[in-house]
C-alpha cells in the first residue's frame, strides 16, 4: 500500500504523521504504519475508527448541524477512542461567523475536550497576507483552549504560515496567560509597517549638513522626501531620479559607476521606507519582521575588496 509506505518512510525519519482522509481503506494501513492522528471521522467511518488504535479528529456530518458531531463523539467515547473535536472553520462568505460560534458551542458542551481548528480554511482562501489572520485565529484558540490547529503553505500569500503560527502562538499565550495586551511584544509579526520611524527633523538635518566635512553621502528618509547630505550640501526630493540629477548638477568628483549603483540602491530602499512609513537607516536592511533578509553594508563590502 502506497499510503503505508509513505507513512513508514516518514516515521523512519523520526517525523510524526497524520493522515487526512475519510476512507478506511487508506486510513487503516496508515495507522498500522504509525500515523498518530486521523483527519477526519464522522458517522460514515466511525465504526472503522474503533480499530485504528490512534487519535481521530471528529467532525460533523454537515458543518451547519452540530448534533451530528455530538452523536459521533458519544459513539467513539463509549468505545475508548481518543478524539479531538473540529466543528470546522468555514471561509468568509460561507459561514465564517457562524463557524466561530460553533467552536464556542463545542467548548461549552465539552469544557475539557481537545478541540482542533483547520485555520488554513481562512488563510488559504482569503486575499490577505496571512500573518495577522494567524494571530487573530490563534488568539481565539488560546482564549478557548484549542490546542491543535492545521495550517498549510500552498497559496503564495500564506507561504510562511508555519513560521507565523510559531511566533503567534507564543505571542497570544503570553498575552492571555499574563493578561496583557498583545502589543509591543513581537515586532517580527509586523513585516509591512514595522516600528514607527524616528525622524531627525529639518533643523537637525540642516545642522548635520553644516557639520559634515567630508564628501561622503548620508541618506535619510523623512518628511515625505529622501534627503542627501554631504559637506555643505543638503538636497532633497521625493523622486530618487530627480534627487540624483540634482546631485549630478553639483558636478561631484566622487561618483563612479560603483558609487552611483550604491546610491541608487540606497535611494530605492529609502523610497520604499517612505511609501510604507518604515524606518530607514543607510547601509542597513529594511526591517521586514520575520521576513527580513540580512544585508552586508556597502562599507563592509568596500573593506573586503582587494
Describe this structure in words.
There is one protein chain. The protein has 306 residues and is an alpha/beta fold. 44% of the residues lie in helices and 12% in strands. The chain is built from twelve helices and nine strands. It has helices at residues 2-12, 24-33, 46-49, 67-78, 96-109, 120-123, 130-144, 161-178, 202-211, 240-249, 257-276, 298-304; strands at residues 18-20, 37-41, 55-58, 83-85, 116-118, 148-150, 218-222, 225-230, 233-237. The strands form three sheets. A four-stranded parallel sheet has the order 1-2-3-4, with helices on one face. A three-stranded antiparallel sheet has the order 7-8-9, sandwiched between helices. Strand 2 (37-41), helix 3 (46-49) and strand 3 (55-58) form a beta-alpha-beta unit. Helix 1 runs parallel beside helix 2 (24-33) and helix 7 (130-144) crosses helix 8 (161-178). The N and C termini lie far apart (60 Å). 25% of the residues are buried.
Amino acid at each position: 500500500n502506497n499510503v503505508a509506505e509513505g507513512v513508514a518512510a516518514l516515521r523512519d525519519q523520526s517525523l510524526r504523521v497524520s493522515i487526512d482522509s475519510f476512507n478506511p481503506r487508506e486510513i487503516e494501513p496508515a495507522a498500522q504504519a504509525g500515523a498518530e492522528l486521523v483527519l477526519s471521522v464522522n458517522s460514515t467511518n466511525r465504526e472503522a475508527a474503533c480499530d485504528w488504535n490512534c487519535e481521530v479528529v471528529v467532525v460533523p456530518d454537515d458543518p451547519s448541524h452540530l448534533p451530528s458531531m455530538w452523536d459521533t463523539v458519544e459513539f467513539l467515547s463509549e468505545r475508548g477512542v481518543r478524539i479531538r473535536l473540529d466543528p470546522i472553520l468555514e471561509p468568509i462568505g460561507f459561514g465564517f461567523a457562524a463557524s466561530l460560534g460553533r467552536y464556542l458551542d463545542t467548548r461549552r458542551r465539552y469544557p475539557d475536550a481537545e478541540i482542533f481548528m483547520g485555520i488554513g480554511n481562512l488563510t488559504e482562501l482569503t486575499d490577505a497576507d496571512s500573518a495577522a489572520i494567524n494571530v487573530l485565529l490563534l488568539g481565539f484558540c488560546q482564549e478557548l483552549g484549542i490546542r491543535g490547529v492545521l495550517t498549510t503553505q500552498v497559496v503564495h500569500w500564506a507561504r510562511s504560515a508555519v513560521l507565523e503560527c510559531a511566533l503567534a502562538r507564543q505571542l497570544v499565550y503570553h498575552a492571555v496567560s499574563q493578561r496583557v495586551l498583545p502589543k509591543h511584544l513581537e515586532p517580527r509579526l509586523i513585516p509591512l509597517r514595522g516600528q514607527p520611524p524616528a525622524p531627525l527633523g529639518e533643523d537637525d538635518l540642516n545642522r548635520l549638513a553644516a557639520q559634515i566635512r567630508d564628501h561622503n553621502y548620508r541618506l535619510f528618509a523623512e518628511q515625505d522626501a529622501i534627503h542627501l547630505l554631504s559637506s555643505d550640501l543638503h538636497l532633497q526630493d521625493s523622486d530618487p531620479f530627480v534627487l540624483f540629477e540634482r546631485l549630478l548638477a553639483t558636478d561631484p568628483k566622487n561618483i563612479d559607476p560603483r558609487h552611483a549603483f550604491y546610491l541608487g540602491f540606497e535611494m530605492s530602499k529609502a523610497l520604499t521606507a517612505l511609501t510604507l512609513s518604515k524606518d530607514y537607516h543607510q547601509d542597513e536592511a529594511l526591517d521586514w519582521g520575520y521576513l527580513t533578509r540580512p544585508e552586508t553594508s556597502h562599507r563592509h563590502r568596500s573593506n573586503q575588496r582587494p
